[in-house]
Amino acid sequence: MFLHTKHLQFESKPEKPDPVYAHKLQELLGGAYGEMTVTMQYLMQGWNCRMSGKYKDLIMDIATEEIGHVEMIATMIARLLEGAPATATTKMAAGDPVMGAVLGGMDLQQAIVSGGGPLLADSNGYPWNGRYIVASGNLLADFRANVAAEAQGRLQTARLYNMTDDPGVRDMLKFNLARDTLHQNLWLKAIEELLEDGLEDVIAPNSLFDEEHAEHASAIWDLSEGTEGTQGGWASGPQPDGRHEFSYLLDPQPLGGVATAPPPDPALYDTYDGAMGEPKGPVLGTETGPLGKLKDKLT
Amino acid sequence: MFLHTKHLQFESKPEKPDPVYAHKLQELLGGAYGEMTVTMQYLMQGWNCRMSGKYKDLIMDIATEEIGHVEMIATMIARLLEGAPATATTKMAAGDPVMGAVLGGMDLQQAIVSGGGPLLADSNGYPWNGRYIVASGNLLADFRANVAAEAQGRLQTARLYNMTDDPGVRDMLKFNLARDTLHQNLWLKAIEELLEDGLEDVIAPNSLFDEEHAEHASAIWDLSEGTEGTQGGWASGPQPDGRHEFSYLLDPQPLGGVATAPPPDPALYDTYDGAMGEPKGPVLGTETGPLGKLKDKLT
Amino acid sequence: MFLHTKHLQFESKPEKPDPVYAHKLQELLGGAYGEMTVTMQYLMQGWNCRMSGKYKDLIMDIATEEIGHVEMIATMIARLLEGAPATATTKMAAGDPVMGAVLGGMDLQQAIVSGGGPLLADSNGYPWNGRYIVASGNLLADFRANVAAEAQGRLQTARLYNMTDDPGVRDMLKFNLARDTLHQNLWLKAIEELLEDGLEDVIAPNSLFDEEHAEHASAIWDLSEGTEGTQGGWASGPQPDGRHEFSYLLDPQPLGGVATAPPPDPALYDTYDGAMGEPKGPVLGTETGPLGKLKDKLT
Amino acid sequence: MFLHTKHLQFESKPEKPDPVYAHKLQELLGGAYGEMTVTMQYLMQGWNCRMSGKYKDLIMDIATEEIGHVEMIATMIARLLEGAPATATTKMAAGDPVMGAVLGGMDLQQAIVSGGGPLLADSNGYPWNGRYIVASGNLLADFRANVAAEAQGRLQTARLYNMTDDPGVRDMLKFNLARDTLHQNLWLKAIEELLEDGLEDVIAPNSLFDEEHAEHASAIWDLSEGTEGTQGGWASGPQPDGRHEFSYLLDPQPLGGVATAPPPDPALYDTYDGAMGEPKGPVLGTETGPLGKLKDKLT
Amino acid sequence: MFLHTKHLQFESKPEKPDPVYAHKLQELLGGAYGEMTVTMQYLMQGWNCRMSGKYKDLIMDIATEEIGHVEMIATMIARLLEGAPATATTKMAAGDPVMGAVLGGMDLQQAIVSGGGPLLADSNGYPWNGRYIVASGNLLADFRANVAAEAQGRLQTARLYNMTDDPGVRDMLKFNLARDTLHQNLWLKAIEELLEDGLEDVIAPNSLFDEEHAEHASAIWDLSEGTEGTQGGWASGPQPDGRHEFSYLLDPQPLGGVATAPPPDPALYDTYDGAMGEPKGPVLGTETGPLGKLKDKLT
Amino acid sequence: MFLHTKHLQFESKPEKPDPVYAHKLQELLGGAYGEMTVTMQYLMQGWNCRMSGKYKDLIMDIATEEIGHVEMIATMIARLLEGAPATATTKMAAGDPVMGAVLGGMDLQQAIVSGGGPLLADSNGYPWNGRYIVASGNLLADFRANVAAEAQGRLQTARLYNMTDDPGVRDMLKFNLARDTLHQNLWLKAIEELLEDGLEDVIAPNSLFDEEHAEHASAIWDLSEGTEGTQGGWASGPQPDGRHEFSYLLDPQPLGGVATAPPPDPALYDTYDGAMGEPKGPVLGTETGPLGKLKDKLT
Hints:
By secondary structure, the first copy, chain A, is mainly α. Chain A is about 45% helix and about 5% strand. Strand 1 (about 1-5) of chain C pairs antiparallel with strand 1 of chain E, so a sheet runs across the interface. Chains A, B, C, D, E, F: Belongs to the manganese catalase family. Chains A, B, C, D, E, F: Pfam families: Mn_catalase.
């Protein structure tokens, strides 16, 4: 269960309105790496976490913080839109270059749909959606996604930092940048700890190493012209997991047969000249199951 | 420019058809962490790479390999669908439990839309889309996303490995597992090398450290009940970036003011009682620009 | 079956072209509360209506009108785009502020994709989709959605009314505003009539009142800081349905246990330390069904 | 800023796992009228609310509660999935009708993607998205959408109540049903209060009545065959807003001209025979603006 | 403006309910090539048509018919769902294989969301959306899309025809198949007529032939291994447009330079070693425009 | 398996950067008829092709070429963005009309998300998705979709050609125009050859002519006011398939019964007055199947 305070985690107040910047800031609210994504990603990871204790508590701490970040950005956008020429006409835009520039840069739906408020969408107007998040139940795989999300988040925040010189906006972004720095460090540290605790190892998931074709876990295939890739540390030597050696396959040849699709079911009307014969029937291997016996009895 | 060979990178041939498994395998083709995602993610990263040399060549090598993985999964799906009871009626499904189980587990569009072939969609029928990929231009941030994608990819492949006992399907998945192991190692190694080459550092982007509010880059806020989080290595001590110390803020108080939205433009018809006065006009600071002078002249 | 007349329900002719406004008007065509939504919402409600008679006939009357509204907006957009500088270059935009303002405000796809015509998308270019509509079969629930849709529709129309001073555009919007007024009144009246006819009551659906936990149908939980909410009419007294009393729970405490997720299936590779033991198997309760007997026999 | 307690608002514990029901319950989590929608709808309405006081506090109270409902449903889904035959093969499904029925009814991504946990998607696997919510700034229009959302939510909950007989699941749903009853009453009461406070009236927005074509705010057009609609209370008499009378137009004739699209820009290559002449140029009305004067000067 | 009759264009009545088939039939209602697509595609083409006369009238005739086809399929789905075990429990499905097969094959949202009615979605539950349609203004390009849509539509209808033996359902599909046959012939004929009328030619658009690099309009590049393609009629001889000859380029070599991305803006934090120098500034060519003069004056 | 060369198929180098044009060019990369669509459409058609030989080889040749077109457009976009004022402030835009025009026309995500590179999205920022492609297995139906796609592609390219005068951009577009011309001719020729080879006929699929209601394959129904349609060649005479005659039905009457939905399941809470009685139960016709016998035995 959640509780809400009226105060923002950090101040979110522009010195002056700037409706064009309000448009850009949508990326940090509803973009693929915006605050909605980390909020829901961490909440779902926390609820899906299979152990009580430090990991779950940490995830829920950060998740709960991120809801407050959505609140900060949403509030900032509404304030940046104060006094925006939202209902100005084309004539007004065409007759005054300053207004033309502002109107050309605004998000139309912030006026028409939200009445001067934020949208749950990114800076191109595309709505945030649930396929952006990952909560797989495997903490190593998920924490890596978290590091990646915080890295993209800080990168976009840094770009947006350079797109404004409003001291109030920058003050909030300086807080966000610092939190993104901390959170990158945090998930990196949590990954270390998963390994120290023996819960996971370098490769996710930490399993099926005996089953996988180990002979294909070494060589990078040189499938794009040029061999500059061989100058990297990945061209030879031990791999980070300590299990494998790197190598570079410079003249790669396909190992599989020719790619073909089987004869089609005639009732699907695929174009087919019959050259490959009839399709085989599905063999579902129920010969020994109880229904197999049942069928024998009844037919 | 690309060239295509007829042969698959690795054999992709089931021993027996299995239309239910063909449904599940869609996740590896068109899911958020399937082969389409890594293909387009790496291609776009390669085309967007700002340096010639080892990194770009490596990215393009792996990207080109991944197109071939899309081909392998697509071919496997078509072969698993051979002889599927695609046009069976409800009566047939209801009258035979084996067929009922198979029909209930099939992807309807693999029959109706693709005529017994694969879709560019995931195992819930949702189409692959371009917001799944990331190619930010910052190689550290992107390589982290690549590690994360390969980790999720191997995890899903491992889960799918346990959902079949067909030797042919498993043979292909053993190859995929090995490649996902290699690619995790690879991107981890490439991240190390970015740091060794001095191109990036632990935090992405490697910049704005003087601007960000450093005092907020240390403390995890205990916003979710319970203090088990303080038992982690992230509760104190140096952070992975070597710049900051970890700490835990156990009684967090909001630092910002009350969250409020400003007085609205009356022409937008937001509900408002006028208590906060009139909205201020946007102040765009053009007083000293050339248009400012122009306006002065003309008005 | 439908028939079409060549004439528009109401005139839809701008005095002058205005390609920027054509962009904004997309919201009324393909937005979440645009004409496409009410068209398809009402059609699907009508086809899904379980009674012949006045309700179904009414729904189909309004639904059929709304197709004509899509036609009106689509026609208006095409006319607003007449003579638009659709193929002007960046140089032309940069060299002439009037053209710059116009080009900056245009919808790129109206030119590139539609050749100077409307799109089935909203003012941010996002396509209309079938998840926008609701046709649940419960007329009370659906008519409420209709009132809500007409209210949002009139609100957006009013905002757009203030964004133009073209007499022709305004003439059409004056018609649309009036229809949205009528349709709000209409669905409100139809809700009244559902109650008078004894088909529904205040709460949708009008059922399961004995089953629901009635003790939790009274109190608003004060989960957000501040008690201003208690100054509202919802703080005490009878509820609109006449069945319940309002109250305000000022010190809410959670009623449930700790949120945890169960031990995972090892074959899914979730991170887990085993502390919670093994997962229990699914218990599907078929012990007494015919298959249960069958299994007993066969095994 | 938000805080989180470990305890659920209400218990969310099934007596027995049921992976098929876990699939259905996704609708209440990530469907268009599920808990994610009301959570984000109310949060955005609260942040976009233009007045401090009772309305804003109420909205934030309910919004904060709804985050906890997402948590309850997410926890329930994970628990329903305990021990699910997530990695069973097609052979196992085909060989045992009970398992076949269970596997055929499961959500594939709950296993492959989430490792036995919930998704941010509906019961057809479609991800939740930000276009589902409405936060227009007009409280009347938005509260109506809230009533509608709670009505659809209670309706779907009631349907799902009948799809299970698990006492634990039903216990939670009985709480949800009661909250949905309360919340319908609540938003209905809040609408009443908006009118009593003089902030809004029956029609949203409460404006532009002098501008709209009042003569078209009365008549329902009989555009669908049959006159049963005239038997309703909407056929005559005063409208709920007290401003208009209802009437029924039984022989409706279009009021507008023929729908036509204007001559196209030749550079867009629309098919056109020239019969309508040349397109007129856009007339943006800047003749008297400062740029008009500027152009005169410079050319 | 549109009118509606109560009667269906053609009977749409199943002999018996079949809820599994109701799921499959969603493809014809809301799929990419279902009735919603042709309805909206033709309506938008008609409204966007730049000539009065036979083409526009034809498009509107067919478009209006297609709305009635949406109605037919929607009605059929509701009728197929009569008596569906929509609220049956998992226990019931697991305990009775017939019910298990039926429940496993049903569309969950047809019960939970629509109350036993159709959805605006395809057979995998994905909502219909406005990006499915094309209405470019160029009739040749659009009529080709129409032929393609009718071909896919008839193909899917034929596949679905084989998935039922209900005489009532088949009776309706026989009508649909016939209409799809007619409509394919129709759009093919209309393409012929566009050429006869001199409005279009073989290639769309019928323009820019002098500008395009004619030397690259002949040769198919043999970029995929194997030369079987040269056995086709497209390997040599005149092309259908009468302007070009076919040829096959068997040893294709790239004509362009190496693919590289330019030096990045430092404020975007792309990874870059500086090897390519500084980015050049944008050159927008306004030196001679009025603003150029203006700038000169004012600075 | 695929291989990659470093060189582009054709040069893709603008004379000068133009960030506004980079925005427009997104349509050719990630639009519904852009290069991503034809790439994935042809690849999936090739992998789904049911015959070895000339058709499959041709499809794969063109498919492989199209990946290289994605590369060309992606490279062009990155180069057009060189030196773009990506991080300029609103003040800078408002203070300088040239910069205002440029910033107003840029794609915000090309800066914030991609760091000056391309997106997998169209010119309105909507991501490319897998529902755009068609690969049905029926080559006639698919080749028609290919002709249609190349026609729309050339049309959009032609429109974009007129939106730039940069010689480098135009040089690339001249190549693209020529390829689109060739590919239209190519798929038209391949359709001819399918007929000559006896694999398909005029109507897709070439089947079910005896089953379809042939009496409804002739007449166009005059459902939209006006009879100009009868002036077309489709009003009478033989149809292109040689099987049918065209006719025009000038006074069309519906052939079906009244559209109604059946009595609902009470547990779904649809609004219903009981006038139509009880719903009938599903009749699944298993009376003679093995389970029918089993049930008889066990009950």
